[in-house]
Amino acid sequence: MILTVWNLFQWKYVGALLRAVASWALHLGFGHAWNDVWIKWGNYPIKRYYHAFLPSELRPYFENDRWEIEEFYFTRKGHRVGFWRAYNLVMIVRKKIAS
Predict the structure, then answer these.
(1) What's the pTM value of the predicted model, to 2 decimals?
(2) How many CB atoms within 10 Å of residue 75?
(3) For residue range 43-58, what is the model confidence (pLDDT) as tens digits?
């Protein structure tokens, strides 16, 4: 399986992330995570909900008896880059065959 996740840890989303952290702190952590953000999508007037995944949040879903992580990397326009320059997180996992 190839899983791609939008990397919201980019400079253009810093404001949305800071608002999410402030909201999380204001609500004492109840109701949502610190990295749950609302972002405007294109020209639509309504913001959409996104969860800004960290690599440490994705790995546990696949580090178990059923899956094996083959690759985990970050991309920007088809090229591998570091986390802070990336537009996407990419994970390639393979289902383990039962013995």
Answers:
(1) 0.77
(2) 16
(3) 888 988 899 998 899 9
